[in-house]
Amino acid sequence: MATNEESAGVLREEIIAEGRKQSEGILERARQQADDILATATAEADKVREEQLERGRTEAARRRELILATVPVEAGRLRVARVESLLESVNEEARGWLLAHDGFKYREAVVTLAALAASHMEGVAFVVRVSEADQALLGDGLAEEVRRRVGRSSLDLTVTYEPEITARSGVIVEDAEGRQMWDNRLLKRLERMWPEMRRQIAVETSFVPRSESGGRRP
Question: Residue 125 is part of which domain span?
Fold first, then answer.
């Protein structure tokens, strides 16, 4: 009986030892698998992080290129806006000079403007329309002076003084039949001349490159 108990004890010990051995193997394999999983996860995480960083660098580079591409456009827009502002200030100043008759004699200007209009119109009979408020300033002999300035003694000129025309604003010339009309008032003349004057100012001040342009009606 003792022999059987001893045999059973030995078998139990062997089973326990074998179980311990198997469990250690299982634990070792589990630890190895865990290490492998961790290494794989770490590698994948590094790969994902690098891909994200690369996408970030690519996106940053793309945005940088977009920003750099807009710089010349924005600079050009600001430059154009600045040039337009400067040219507009020149226009406003020129209008001020004309309205104040700064730097020229008004009566002489009216004679010149009327003669210029008449010389570019067909016919021999014209009406020179000026402001009623200018009658005292312009005085008599205006028609004769215009005729002399045009250089055509045969011109039939009639001067009319009209209340609806602004004082000291210039002259309007029409042919006798009313088919032709040339508004040579000071601001109207500036308005017609301004596009070419604007171009010349921009060129002379190096705002824009020099270029050829066609003539314009005076």
Answer: 104-204
